[in-house]
Amino acid sequence: METLNLLEAYNCLPLAELEVGQHFYWQIGNLKVHGQIFLTSWFVIGLLVIASLAATRNLQRIPTGMQNFMEYALEFIRDLAKNQIGEKDYRPWVPFVGTLFLFIFVSNWSGALVPWKLVHLPSGELGAPTADINTTVALALLTSLAYFYAGFSKLGLGYFAHYVEPVPFMLPFKIIEDFTKPLSLSFRLFGNILADELVVGVLVLLVPLFVPLPVMALGLFTSAIQALIFATLAAAYIGEALEDHHHEEEAH
């Protein structure tokens, strides 16, 4: 009887309901999702789709305007993937690396350039999708799945051989590394973007005229760097997963 009373008292504690900030939720069946993140993510995806349509609507042999900009972005992403993954295997991964880079880049900049505060929600507020830990964790987990798939598609079960190389006692360290990769990817991006938004928000309240402008400019620069770092590390992890396969081909 005492055990039951203790369990009931524990269940009454509000510890399981603690949250950081307020959120605007959508109830989909038994699932509760962050509606504010879906709204801003769809906004970013819409911008990318519009830019893609504008760039490919009337293709010219000598590109100008939006076509020229998008071709430059594609060339930049292609070089990034080639340098990190390798010339033999980079082509299938250009869309994935490019999608990561463009989505994170536009998401980061949307937090600094779009006046989300003017849109009022029943609860919570809109902001950059990458300023929410759920978004960055999802992107990091997709990256983990991508480099696991890269290794399995080339080596099959032989991919697990690198866990015990060069010596078997490396196994626990390699397993820990697989957990730390998505953690570092997600928390680095989330922490930097959230910190930038908080700093700008505080400065706008304290000194609303000229002081926040250089901080906002610096925030745009660091936001672009964070997108580049995430995409570069994602490509590097994929390249590492394919590295043993390269050695096998060279041995033959």
UniProtKB/TrEMBL annotation:
Compartmental location: Cell membrane; Cellular thylakoid membrane; Membrane
The keyword 4Fe-4S belongs to this UniProt entry's keyword annotation: no
Main location group: membrane
Database matches in CDD domains: ATP-synt_Fo_a_6
A GO term for molecular function: proton-transporting ATP synthase activity, rotational mechanism
Residues passing through the membrane, by range: 37-56, 93-113, 133-152, 189-211, 217-238
InterPro entries: ATP_syn_F0_a_bact/chloroplast, ATP_synth_F0_asu, ATP_synth_F0_asu_AS, F0_ATP_A_sf
Keyword list, A-Z: ATP synthesis, CF(0), Hydrogen ion transport, Ion transport, Membrane, Thylakoid, Transmembrane, Transmembrane helix, Transport
Cited Gene3D superfamilies: ATP synthase, F0 complex, subunit A
GO annotation, cellular component aspect: plasma membrane-derived thylakoid membrane; proton-transporting ATP synthase complex
Keyword RNA-binding carried by entry: no
Pfam families: ATP-synt_A (PF00119)
Recorded topology in the membrane: Multi-pass membrane protein
Family label: Belongs to the ATPase A chain family.
PANTHER family according to UniProt: ATP SYNTHASE SUBUNIT A, CHLOROPLASTIC (PTHR42823:SF3)
Record's function text: Key component of the proton channel; it plays a direct role in the translocation of protons across the membrane.
Protein name, entry field: ATP synthase subunit a
